[in-house]
Automatic annotation (TrEMBL):
This is Uncharacterized protein. It comes from the Bacteria. It comes from Haloplasma contractile SSD-17B.
């Protein structure tokens, strides 16, 4: 297994993890399970979304 291939596989795993995580977070934000007062969770969600974007995850639901 050459290095490039190895890197790609690792990247895919990481990307999948963040896609799942950010999708959950985004769903929570959209359905307002997070109160406006609970800005910490909101901040987390936005951070996860940014991280997901960094890994170039497509099909991420954005309003």
């Amino acid at each position: 297994m050459n290095r490039e291939r190895q890197y790609e596989e690792g990247h895919k795993k990481v990307a999948k993890y963040w896609r799942q995580k950010s999708n959950k977070m985004w769903a929570a934000l959209k359905h307002q399970n997070i109160n406006e007062s609970d800005s910490n969770k909101q901040y987390d969600a936005i951070r996860y979304l940014r991280r997901a974007r960094r890994y170039r995850i497509r099909g991420l639901k954005r309003t």
